[in-house]
Amino acid sequence: MFLYFYTKVTNSNMINWSPILLSIKLAIATVTILLLISIPLAFWLSSKKSKLKSIIEAVISLPLVLPPTVLGFYLLITFSPNSSVGSFFNTYLGINLAFSFTGLVIGSVIYSLPFMLQPILTGFNSLPKSLSEASYLLGKSKRVTLLKVLLPNIKQSVITGTVLAFAHTIGEFGVVLMIGGNIPQQTKVVSIAIYDEVESLNYTNAHIYSGILLATTFTILLLVYLRKNANSNLL
Q1: Residue 212 CB-half CA count within 13 A
Q2: In angstroms, what CA-CA distances link 146 with 33, 62, 203?
């Protein structure tokens, strides 16, 4: 199978690499933003006990159960120049969120947030409370405790969340199609390119795009599980 796939890639002169590169660019931008959001948010959620916490977790977890097209539809309405959010970005920042790469990044951050947040939150919840309490007793601030004490102990959880969010973003279809449409070199990511090739009955290129996507995500997951099992064997 891999020999067949390699032959198809090397012999095809029609393959357009732009959707693949755009998907990788989108995934990197999304994961970078999610790391900045998820780590402090997970730290806050792990230290709070209130009804507000349950509401926030429920809202964040909606993408796990909502059909992507539903989320994409409401995001498209929100990003529209006719909405207050879309109008603000368009008027004051000169950014069109609908059918743009910026809109794809924001939509992907919302859609992939639970995939990044849940493993990190689980990591924080697994740590004994005495760890942070000892840090506070030694005079360390919450920021220092988070960066120097807690994060090093949940490194595997952060890696897992990063990988899941990256792989999930690369494989997005419904949300990116609703928000970004199908604009070459701007919003046409690899999942949409596969759909286009299948619609055109061009199964050769569909095989190539799908194979690259499959090989990439499998390799990333394999490396994570190899690292995880290696760390388990050291314990």
Answers
A1: 23
A2: 18, 27, 49
Please list, in sequence order, all residues whose beta carbon lies within 8 angstroms of the beta carbon of residue 206, skipping any fewer than 6 positions away. Answer: 194, 197, 198
Question: Which domains does the chain carry?
Answer: 20-189 (1.10.3720.10)
Are the CB atoms for 208 and 69 separated by under 8 Å?
A: no
Whether the predicted model's global pTM rises above the 0.85 cut: yes
88-138 pLDDT, tens digit each: 988 888 888 989 999 999 999 999 999 999 999 999 999 998 888 888 888
d(CA 138, CA 103): 44
Q: Long-range contacts made by residues 24-28, C-beta under 8 angstroms, separation at least 24?
A: 24/170, 26/101, 26/104, 26/105, 26/108, 26/169, 26/170, 26/176, 26/189, 27/108, 27/166, 27/169, 27/170, 28/166
Coil, strand or helix at 50: coil
- Cα separation, 103 vs 41, in Å, equals 22
- CA–CA separation, 136 and 9 (whole Å): 56
Q: Is 205 helix (H, G, I), strand (E, B) or coil?
A: helix
> Quick check: 158 and 123 in contact, CB under 8 A?
yes
Do residues 181 and 187 touch, judged by C-beta distance below 8 A?
Answer: yes
**Which tokens go with 42?**
């997970």
CA dihedral 105, 107, 111, 113 (to 10 degrees): 50
**DSSP symbol at 153:** G
- Amino acid at the residue 192: I
Structure tokens at 61: 């977890």
